[in-house]
Amino acid sequence: MELRLNHVKKSFGDKTVLDDCSFVFQQGKIYGLLGRNGAGKTTLFNCLSDEIQPDMGNALICDDEGEHVLLPDEIGYVFSVPVLPDFLTGEEFVRFFMDINRDRIETGASAETYFDLVQIDPEDRRKLIKGYSHGMKNKLQMICFMISRPPVILLDEPLTSLDVVVALEMKQLLRRMQKNHVIIFSTHILQLATDLCDEIVVLSEGRLRQIDHEMLKSKDFEEQIIELLKDEEKHE
Ligand SMILES: Nc1ncnc2c1ncn2[C@@H]1O[C@H](COP(=O)(O)OP(=O)(O)OP(=O)(O)O)[C@@H](O)[C@H]1O
């Protein structure tokens, strides 16, 4: 399965944010999306998830069965601030989510299976989501994706505010899930991108370009990425 962006264009007034942006993301890989503040990472995610309409172009899912325009329910979006129903307990929410996705669930999986996988303690499962930490909310969102299994998962700077232990658990979780999904992960932390991601993609001047693996291995990789990102400023 592949996610293909075809000539996606998005402007806000005079400002062109995505400029004829084309790219192919492949299933099984975690992509680190890097870009300066205001480069258009969130705009790209919003176009993919149907939050906003691109002015031109589209995103297609291509697999053995053919190709079709990416549908909103084929996207899982982890916002930097997780949005969840605060008035439910974690357990109530997961059971509810399993119920509305009962056709997609792996046979035999129970709510406990999922909580165990993301390492949320049994006593926390019965607490209101309102009292959950940011990391626990992120884990709940990951449970949603394990249940509904959208082909494309977008993560908007999800690990930045997590403590090192939870960030490591989340990384392990993403690694475990990656083979069935296209995972795109926006971050400002270069180290995290190189550490977790299979490919690094830079968004600059409204376009996506993949960094080749030779460059990733070179010792002045960080300097080269910074130069690439700085170039955008020169063109503004
Ligand atoms: N709804 C909107 N109306 C007008 N301009 C917008 C809108 N959304 C985004 N922009 C502009 O588009 C540009 C790209 O913003 P976007 O939030 O996509 O960047 P980003 O790469 O996610 O930035 P950051 O790393 O700071 O989160 C910015 O100049 C922003 O001001």
UniProtKB/TrEMBL annotation:
Gene3D superfamilies: P-loop containing nucleotide triphosphate hydrolases (3.40.50.300). It comes from the Bacteria. Residues 3-230 form the ABC transporter domain. The keyword Nucleotide-binding applies. Keywords: ATP-binding, Nucleotide-binding, Transport. Coiled coil: none annotated. GO terms for molecular function: ATP binding; ATP hydrolysis activity. InterPro entries: AAA+_ATPase (IPR003593), ABC_transporter-like_ATP-bd (IPR003439), ABC_transporter-like_CS (IPR017871), ABC_Transporter_VariousFunc (IPR051782), P-loop_NTPase (IPR027417). Pfam families: ABC_tran. This is ABC transporter ATP-binding protein. It comes from Sellimonas intestinalis. The lineage of its organism: Bacteria, Bacillati, Bacillota, Clostridia, Lachnospirales.
